[in-house]
Amino acid sequence: MLVSGKTRIYGIVGNPVWHSLSPYMHNAAFREYEMDCIYVAFPARSARCVVDSVRCFGVCGLSITAPFKEEILEYLDSADESCEMIGAVNTIKYERGEVEGINTDWIGAANALGKKINPGEKRCLVVGAGGTARAVVYGLKRKGAEIMVVNRTVEKAESLGRDFDVSYGSLNEIAKFNPEILINTTPVGMEPRCGESLVPGEILSSVSVVMDVVYKPRRTRLLEDALRAGCRIVEGLEMLLEQGVAQFEWWTGRKAPRKSMAESIGLAGDEQ
Ligand code: NAP
């Protein structure tokens, strides 16, 4: 890739960001289409300085990650309805002097899950009540799922339940709902504490599809338990791919080269 004076700049901002897989995914897409664009990782100091820098340097688009997803909302010129409902932005674009925001996490979760099952009218249990849970619930609601949210801090589950008009409870109530679909939206199971899961293995035998947003490791303890119980699984890496596909298409107006993007993050074959 030759960087010229006309190269358009995209990137990811967060703190830390060195571990992100998004640079592999988006640079693979730019290479595939021979676009004069580059995607880099920016460890940032604050949400305000991110938006100021976008305007100052003419950065074309950014993925936004922790800890700026919520705070950045107040500095944007506009944000779509999903950002307002979820309370977080994960993608911004700078065009015609305006900084716009959208949230592609809900699209990523809905599309990744949708490859295995249509959640419409299915009982879906969402474990966790943080930003990712809100994105997942937003996507599930749009598909007409019947949703229950459980969380370690019940007050947070209650607040999410109220905002989205869904049932809520504590982690002890996981078995009570008898879900057909179960989605972990917490970081539990992530490296280096790979052996952990919030979901008792025994309840999984009656679940059809289990999804985990954690993607390091690819096969979390929850997903291993789910496979043993005969469930179909959706990996966090598939959600990452789908949210990246939606970002690329919003930034460039072109159909994303999904195969190259998937291969760049180690997804290949039947996961696509
Ligand atoms: P967040 O807003 O901080 O929420 C974290 C949630 O996890 C809260 O509900 C929290 O419960 C719960 N939690 C954390 N540690 C726990 C523990 N030890 N036991 C029980 N519950 C625990 O975080 P987030 O932004 O939603 O991110 C969550 C995960 O999603 C991260 O691992 C992130 O990397 C991943 N993610 C993946 C993708 C993807 O494309 N695959 C996209 C976005 C995010 P309390 O309320 O009780 O604290």
Description:
This protein has nine helices and twelve strands. Strand 7 (123-127), helix 5 and strand 8 (146-151) form a beta-alpha-beta unit. It has 272 residues and is an alpha/beta fold. The strands form two sheets. The chain has a six-stranded mixed sheet, with helices on both faces. Bound molecules: NADP nicotinamide-adenine-dinucleotide phosphate (NAP). NADP nicotinamide-adenine-dinucleotide phosphate binds next to helix 4, helix 5 and helix 8.
Quick take:
The protein is of the alpha/beta class and 272 residues long. Helices cover 34% and strands 21% of the residues.
Top keywords for this entry?
six-stranded mixed sheet, six-stranded parallel sheet, 34% helix, single chain, binds NADP nicotinamide-adenine-dinucleotide phosphate, Rossmann fold, alpha/beta, 2 domains, 272 residues
